[in-house]
Amino acid sequence: MSSARPLEGLTVLELGQLLAGPFCGFMLAGFGARVIKVEPPGTGDAIRSWRVLDDDGTSLWWRSLARDKYSVTADLRQEAGQEIVRDLVRSGVDVVIENFRPGRMEAWGLGPQALQAIDPRVVMVRISGYGQDGPYASRPGFANIAEAFAGFRHLTAEPGRPPVRGGVSLGDTNAGLHAAYATLAAIYERDVGGSGKGQVIDVALYESMFNMMESLLPEYDRKGVVRQPTGGALPGIVPSNTYACSDGRIVIGANSERLFTSLMRLINRDDLAQDTELATNDGRSARAGELDDAIEAWTSQRTCSDALEGLRDAEVPSGPINTIADIAADPHVQAREMMPELPLPSGDMLKVPAVVPKLSRTPAGSRWLGPQLGQHNAEVYGERLGYSPQKLEALKASNTI
């Protein structure tokens, strides 16, 4: 196994804050890209102070999300801060990531035309709520708005009850994944395809979520079907639901003829296993309520662990509904090395989720946790850009960095 990571040699300039743009940068950094994160002086990225804070007042989320990034500071509202970004582009960066509201970068003189005039090889990744054009482009957009607009939130509810969110900012991280994927496609076209030219990647949060909505559109377009919320079940794929046990709930998916038959025999319902109407998914979908009741009649008489043991023996896909405490203690998660430890500034170790997917020869990995604000100013501005100590002091005195 090589110690190199697959994106080593790729340099990324990350200008956005919060989650979608930084998650794209996180993925690229995890696979070896050199990600230079530009933050506002004084405050830094807002996620530095979000959710659970460590003893030094720094967000533990930040420590995980900003892994392997180089933190520099620059006030992009000042001309001197904008010039720092131009100098960084002149120094030879491959990718610029930004997730400001459309038009903000142009107002700062940092739009695609300006940056690609400096270096036509630059790939510019732009992430926003609704995209860079269209009648809604100027509207502010966050993950929860995008999830609702794209149709996802409409489905995350029990029938007749209000929608709920998933507990994480799925719209942001999903957009970040789309952005990272598109970035690699653009780099491949530029370098392997041979054009030698960068391009603009326009990522909309709502479109990234809409892209995950499976058959919603073709079902509506062809048959006029408007899918409705169904709680823990997956409509049209039966049986696939959550089921109550005596001490909690579990998830079961047995949506093929073989799996369905195995499950029915396990729960002592040979009558249903042999019912010809239930031999196809269409037939099972028409009787979904009956099947769910039959399954839950069996699970409710058992603990989660006993039910899952029986399901595993029958080779029926099933699993627990884990909390993070369950995940951290799980032997499979541990065996897969999904919780690497990295040192905090205090010297204590912090477990973070591993960067995935896993590559056999050049795997991803993390070398350090999210850095202190401006920790790499001297290294990046002094060594990469050649700024003198006097210039750095002047920029600091003017609150540019």
How would you characterize the overall build of this protein?
This protein is α/β, with parallel strands linked by helices and 401 residues long. It folds into two domains: 261 residues, 3-Layer(aba) Sandwich (Rossmann fold); 83 residues, 2-Layer Sandwich (formyl-coa transferase, domain 3), CATH 3.30.1540.10. It has 19 helices and eleven strands. The strands form three sheets. It has a six-stranded parallel beta sheet with strand order 3-2-1-4-5-6, sandwiched between helices. A three-stranded antiparallel beta sheet has the order 7-8-9, covered by helices on one side. Strands 10-11 form a two-stranded antiparallel sheet. A hairpin with a 5-residue loop joins strand 10 and strand 11. Helix 1 crosses helix 8. The chain is elongated and about 85 Å long. The model has no long low-confidence stretch (mean pLDDT 96).
Topology, number of strands: 11
Please name the CATH architecture of the largest domain.
3-Layer(aba) Sandwich
Average pLDDT over all residues: 96
Percent of residues in helical segments? Answer: 25-40%
General shape: elongated
Largest sheet: 6 strands, parallel
Strand order of the largest sheet: 3-2-1-4-5-6
Give the helices and strands as they follow along the chain.
EHEHEHEHHEHHHEHHEEHHHHHEHHEEHH
Q: Return the domain count.
A: 2
Q: Roughly how many Å apart are the termini? A: 40 Å
Corresponding CATH superfamily of the largest domain: Crotonobetainyl-coa:carnitine coa-transferase, domain 1
Secondary structure category: alpha/beta
CATH domain topology of the largest domain: Rossmann fold
Strand content: 5-15%
Mind telling me the C-alpha Rg?
25 Å
Q: Figure out the total of helices.
A: 19
**The CATH class of the largest domain:** Alpha Beta
Low-pLDDT ranges: none
